[in-house]
Specification:
The chain is mainly alpha-helical. Helix content is 57%, strand content 7%. It has a domain of 131 residues: Hypothetical protein af1432 (Orthogonal Bundle). It is built from eleven helices and three strands, in the order ααααααααββααβα. The protein is globular.
Length: 219
Amino acid sequence: METVQALCARHAVDMAHAQHVAALALQLFDETHALHQLDVRARALIEVGALLHNVGVEVDEANHHTVGRDIVAGAKLKGFSTAERNILACIVAFHRKAVEPEGELLFRVLNSKQQHVCLVLSALVRVADGLDYSGTQTTEIKSVKRTQPLHIKTTGPHSYDDAARAQKKADVWVGLFGPMHLSGQIKTPGLHPDDTLAVAGRKLMRYWFAQEVIGCGYC
């Protein structure tokens, strides 16, 4: 039997990124609990799935989601049932690229309840991973408004781009629960003396749009 920590160490997982994604995933899980209503065991699974999502990077970065899936599926992780290991492996497989559950054998062997848990956790890990697309561990979740759409505001020097990436990865959540909107911050417009008027105009529009979204009380 092997612990999660030992598996991460064996595959040289970037723990700064993994732990930040895990923290964001847990926060998202807690903030959206009224919607998904999953139990504390599912909460434990999302933390582990987030910690392991990049376990395949050292072996094959280009295909690390499927390589990581196989690593997790083949590991005898201490404290997890076979079904739970399959869920964890699917979280790793589904954290990037298009998600096609029907094509994943480890997903198909789960019962309907386990499949739902797997998709919810995968959806949240995808968003959490997107929120550290910069790899800086500086983007934090400022607030979550459980409105329609669900609105997640983030903060940090790279939050605008990280939130944009997370928005693209929110597709699985949208399929389960409906729209999710993520917004970030731009500290300055980023104007340069040699910018053309067109470029400067686009930067200003981007900056002011970000400020409007962040300050929107009804979004």
